[in-house]
Design brief:
5-stranded mixed β-sheet; 5 helices; 55% strand; 2 domains; mainly beta; 22-stranded antiparallel β-barrel; Immunoglobulin-like; Maltoporin, Chain A
Amino acid sequence: MNCQNKKPAWSWRLAQSALFLLILLSGHVLGQTETLLSGQVLDAKTGEGLPGVNIQIQKTASGTTSNLEGSFQLSGLAPGVYQISFSMIGYAPYVERDVELVVGVPVDLQIELKSNVLASPQVVVTSSRKEQDILESAFSISAIGPREIEAKSVVNMIDILSYESGVSTIKGQLNIRGTSGYTMGAGTRSLLLLDGIPMLGSAAGNVTWGTIPTSEVDRVEIVKSGGSAMYGSSAMGGVVNIITRNAPLKPETRMSTKFGVYSHPRVEEWKWRDSRGLLYNTEFSHSRSIGKHAAWVRVQKRRDDGFMELNWEEALNISAKVKLNFANAHSAAVFVNVLEDKSGLTSVWKSSANPLEAPDGSKRDRTEGTKVVLNGLYNYVYSPDVVVKTKVSGYWNGWDGYGVDPYYSRESRFYEEVQASKSWSDSFTSIIGFTLQQNGVDAQIFGQHTSSSLASFILLEKQLQQFTLTMGSRWEGYKVDGKNQDQVLSPQLALNWKPSPWLGLRISTGKGFRVPTVAEMFTSARRSIFTIEPNPDLISETSINREIGMTLLAGQIGIIDLLKFDAAFFSNRFENFIEPVPNSDAVIHFTNIADARIMGMELGLGMSAFSNLVDYKSAFTVLDPLELDAEGEIQDTLSYRHRYHWVNALGIHFLGLDASLEYRYLSRMESVELFQEIDATGQDARVPIHIWNAGLGKTYKNWHFVLRVDNVFQYYYTQLERNIEEERILTFNVERRF
């Protein structure tokens, strides 16, 4: 079909979105009566003011943060009775209830927050595209704060995500609740956002984790229910939103160095080098306020010898963020990241007798590349009831492969989004917006291709006493090489019931979708023993997601300082599921298998006790991942999924020391694609995963030290066939702030 015949339909839908946006903006009632709310937030133990506390007027779009002395002020709110939440990472959240605002009567509050080592972000934005109490979310969501990242001295964000409930990774590919499995890096069903902007590559739809400035992360939000209604393709299995920090009010300089040493192999015959492999990571950052504005810049240099012959990496990363506050109604931010990296290019081991060495002829295989990310955000508070947000992004990626089969790739992606939120009353809000994305790739293994998408979305939220009803939908159209690929409508319905301040119950259902990537459709490559051939006839996959769950968050119960419990039951039914399927000659094609179903359960527990002396987190996930035929009959277990996933973390804080012990268990993979295990010989055996990590941290004045051992018992296993994982490594990190 000629793509020009479809242009009027796209224009009509865009016009509808623009018209709805104008109606929404014009609905503001002028002449809002003035009220004044002010106060100060203090540390309950020291009595000192707390800067940077997140202050949110619940069920409205209004909020602010405390200044250097912990003071805050809000004006322009309509008269009425409000609930006001106060949250800060490292402190137990607090809600001030029944605050009555009256015209001409200033209200002044004094709030005390209690410190808590376990406290994670309580106010989240990803699941509803606006600030929201995590207990009022209609979807399963967890959050990670900077204290947890710092305690693990994480360099790569993927290293901490794999210790969250329901999240696993294979060769850097994000996998939430088993939806992605392993797709050879070409396509994912879990979307990564950076400050709300998609970060997937334009050709393969994968993630370059090195572009994430881990030390400058304010929080990480993980939405584990399908997110296509709000975020489109690749969000059908969940969303991870990494939110970078704004510069603090005081100037701050940070310098850190991390040094690591890999162990020699436990099996003497596996030893492939005389010296131990080393890891170096050095970072410098500086942040400061400049009048009303603020900025930070970060430079990172790292080198990792790796535990395998082709597991090495070198990288130079420069990141910066500028936050601009023009007036109370206008703010903007610009983020830039430049990454230059080199790394070994591994495919499989040399042999089971030499699992750490590269195959003959591949020992010099490597890639070199440069990646540039430029993100811009602009917020306009038209009134306390109406907020307009604009996001733009540019992504450029060029890399070259060297070795037996040299190749190259040049990619670009441009993204634009406009979103407007409107509070029609204290109990009814709406969000409407549209996005445009354009991609281009010129690669030896893909060819030259372009793709684009246009989408509009709407979210309606209605408060019904203790209930929150959420309805949303997204229409999205895709083109590949100028031809219409697909048009999808993804509705979503969810209900949250908060019968008490410490309990939230939720139920949701929605439709998800994912359009095949350029890599899945057009890859033609041979890498070691792997051969991949194109399949341009791939069609979009869709899913129906259902979930029911609960979150309990309570504090000060006897010796317990903070208790959090979360449970969820979920079911995802997929049609035209895309998986890499090899034929009898081991030639791989990305194929629409008939159907698939992934059902499961998650249980999570977090608690701190004895005045923050001890904290403990545990999460258990069970999956039932099945491949089905067109009639719904079970054909097989989906490949590259762990049926059971259990993570634990224990922290002890005593005499100024912070000790930690972590354990991660994943059950044996029941199905893979290429090399099935041979019982008679033990070749390609698959085993369950048991990983123990230990750490010890100390803060002294402006110095922070962390000593860690990852994979304490040097446990060997594989996830992807003929690729050994995780040698033991000892690391020491020292950071100085001034």
